[in-house]
Design brief:
Number of strands: 39
Helix content: 10-25%
Largest sheet: 8 strands, mixed
Length: about 725
Amino acid sequence: MKQSTLLGLALAGLAPVAASLNVFAQAEPDVVPDPVTEVALIAQDDPFLWLEEVDGERALDWVKAQNADTARRLESQPLFDELYAQAKETLNSASRLPAISQQGEWLYNFWRDADHPRGLYRRTTLEEFAKDSPAWETVIDVDALAAAEDTQWVFRGMNCLPRKPEHCFVRLSPGGGDAVVTREFNSVTKEWVEDGFYLPEAKGSLGWIDADTVFVATDFGPGTMTDSGYPRVVKRWQRGTPLDSAELIHEGGQGSVSVGAFRGRSAGGDVDLVREGTSFWTSQYWQLDGGEKHRLEFPASATLAGVFQGRLILNLKQDWDRMGTVYPQGAVLVADTAALRGGDGEIDVMITPDETTVVESVRTMDNAVLVTVLDNVRGKIFRFVPGPEGGWTREQVAFPDDGSLDVVSTDDETGNFFARYESFTTPPSLYFVADGEKLPQDVKSQAPSFDGSRYESHQFFATSADGTQVPYFVVMAKGTEFDGSNPTHIFSYGGFRNALTPSYSGSYEALYGAYGKLWLDRGGVFVLANIRGGGEFGPAWHQAALKENRERAFEDFEAIAEDLVDRRITLPQHLGIEGRSNGGLLVGATMTRRPDLYGAVICGVPLLDMKRYHLLLAGASWMAEYGDPDKKEEWAYISKYSPYQNLEKGVDYPATFFYTSTRDDRVHPGHARKMAAKMESFGQEVWYYENLEGGHGGSSTNDQLAYRLALAYTHLWNQLR
């Protein structure tokens, strides 16, 4: 089972903005606020509330004016055109390593370039892929589809029924948001299936059971979505019948995050499962068996990582004391479903992490399990196979050290797999590993987008406020003088168990931007900060910055900034910081806590108004991470760092560039809009850019991404030199 199948059960949804006005939901029982008065009180407290009206005429006029002003100020800089051209060249390079997935005999890839800005979904054979210039067959031309249907389609993936490529689901987002339209597609004939399964735009899912039956979770009408805006109802749907006749399988709680169902396929038998996300970090599972639903008993915080030979693979996020046997936090277990249903069965330990080594991902094949671990934030891959007399045999696959590794595609039947390796200065390479082999074959390498031999990377540790040693990577030119004059760019995230690992500049996700050409080659220093809240050192590293301890993430980040200054790598006036999404909250909080520590800020698709975040779009699903601001005791600690509420008149904040997307249906664009407007009302100069499409990624095409990168790096260079 592919890991993405399980992760995809974090279904997406859109909560009505109108519902977000009810901030008095926790009022005393005998107080019934008048809706008109309620909205007026909110507006009085928040004069920029109108900017939460995503498509409101007044709000969009403000956005267009801000975009025009930012374009005027930054595009006029001599550096902008050069940065824009370099970013486009990097992102559209024909030598980019294709991101592949294997479905049957085909290797599939989604490819964007200058000629196909919305992308081609294409495929080739394994034999053809081994050639220097493989021939690709176009399966779906998204640009042509968008033109034919007059819709700004963004491709969100295709998933086919195993061994039946005529039955596939294609997900398309109008404008790039999380809500998608799902259509049935025949990948043999490359045609849409007439009168096939279809879901209109929604944050939901269709999952194959067999050729004529699916699990469906979507918006079935009033009362079928959670407070977080995700499906709370999942059904079994037969081909040729109307959706409203589908059989109810499970109905979750209104306060849960989401509900879904899926078939875990394995050589030893398939397992049908229902998952209810009771919070962002906890879930309850049931097994569907013989027409009945059986609850599975294991810790709610554990994640289901796969199904192997009819058994479930669990990754523990806390110690589990089961009938006197204690399984440690971070361990990977393989369990019989019978044991989890309270009957006879075995539970085996596959791997137990240590202080510096944590499990990052698990992928299963018919006869082996691949486990990717982080060892001091560097990737390693182990292959596990069942032992002849029980237990597991483990061997490490010999990939290069000092970088990041990702199993990108597996062939269940043969046991062969592809993995991607990259480091800060080494371009991505795609390796092929045959079943049972320890030595991978380098089959594809991306051409360098900058000369990595000129640079070196170091891992340093900073001491946080509570004494914790926090690691960070520094990438700089060889021979860089530690004289405090170096323009330095820190990127970090610090939340939701996400681990930031060494990534090459301009690789296909461009997570850290095209920092090679646009930053390092111009004399800059790049820093990747592995602060608490992330997953770099396992569940405990994440849990250390949850809820009332959120400020530890900010303290870690500030400790790294101070350590860079203490080492004389840079000084505050040359130090720029960047974060996206939760990372946008990070930089928003630290710039209001320590405005003296930074010279410039890039704040992308951010959370900033933590008083109202849970009322906007998917925000309610994150209360397990941040807390509930409607509870007095929890707002007491959230209020200490919420950037929007902590802005003060008369403070000289760092020069801040905000970016977001009108079509972001995960983190509301109102966060960035209101923060920028409030800073401007205090006389602070800000730069603001809102892409009218792009979803939470902020862009739908390489050209849109290149434009935003050019704006951001022009801003950094203007402020930090």
